[in-house]
Amino acid sequence: TMLCAVVRNMISNRARVQSGREKIMSAITPDLAADLVSRQIDPAEDSFYGAWADELLLTTLQQLKTDYLKQGRVDNFRVFYGKVLEGLSNVEIAKCLNIKVTDVENHYKRVRRQFSDRLRVVVEGNVRKYGCHENFDDEVELEWQALGDYLKA
């Protein structure tokens, strides 16, 4: 009976402490979020963020290139590279690679989608590694938006 009473008191105490912690966290979470937003640095002005984004893009691009080389689909990657990094038009790329313009469009769409998907996976991995696990989806979305804003700027 005494052992049962002790265990019951311990369980009750843990539940009470946990309930108190949850009340405190729910009360201060909006304040913390507002403070975080007010302190947030513009990613376009943050040189560390710029270096991180450049490295992220470069490694993802290298992985994509390696995969396409292994598959023997080099033209797909060349189309993406020519369009994004060289700024060539579809007609110019088609002439250089001796392929149809519609093939250029299809290759570009496919590689762009794969690049975007891989980039998103890397961003999710970084958030998983360095972010808060409670708001994982929200943090991934914020980081994805920040990266997009940085790239547009």
Plain-language structure description:
The chain is an all-alpha fold. The protein is 84% helix and 0% strand. The chain contains six helices and no strands. The protein has helices spanning 2-39, 47-71, 74-84, 90-97, 101-130, 136-152. Helix 2 (47-71) packs across helix 5 (101-130) and helix 3 packs across helix 5 (101-130).
Strand and helix layout:
Layout (H helix, E strand, L loop, with lengths): L1 H38 L7 H25 L2 H11 L5 H8 L3 H30 L5 H17 L1
Spell out the key features of this protein.
153 residues, elongated, single chain, mainly alpha, 0% strand
Helix content: over 70%
User: What Rg is obtained from the alpha carbons, in whole angstroms?
Assistant: 25 Å
> What is the end-to-end distance?
69 Å
Strand segment count: 0
Morphology call = elongated
Structural class call reads mainly alpha
Describe, in short, the structure shown.
The protein is mainly α.
